[in-house]
Amino acid sequence: MNSIVQLDVFTLKDRLQRGEALNMIDVREDEEVAHGMIPGAKHIPMNQIPDRLHEIEQNGEIIFICRSGYRSERVCEYLQQIGVKGVVNMEGGMLAWSQLND
């Protein structure tokens, strides 16, 4: 099993500030994303990923985001197992992101 590539929030913020167009998927539930998302991220709740694979642009890196980094890492593992390339987990999730941006 390939280990999941991790991206820390500092690097992500830096890349966004430099204007990189990133493919980010937020896998939290509706009530969680109601409190805010990273600008540019697309919302697909974790349990809907298998049915909404066609909505995930699969060319290059795909960064997955959740509250703490646990669920997004599970999503990355699942996608890797079914052959999706370029999956990246945002380490620490939105907890780390909001600490960084407070």
UniProtKB/TrEMBL annotation:
PANTHER family: FAD-DEPENDENT OXIDOREDUCTASE, SULFURTRANSFERASE YTWF-RELATED
Organism per entry: Paenibacillus profundus
SUPFAM superfamilies in UniProt: Rhodanese/Cell cycle control phosphatase (SSF52821)
Residues in Rhodanese domain copies: 18-102
InterPro entries linked: GlpE_sulfurtransferase (IPR050229), Rhodanese-like_dom (IPR001763), Rhodanese-like_dom_sf (IPR036873)
Name of a matching Pfam family: Rhodanese
Coiled-coil region list: none
Protein name: Rhodanese-like domain-containing protein
Record lineage: Bacteria, Bacillati, Bacillota, Bacilli, Bacillales
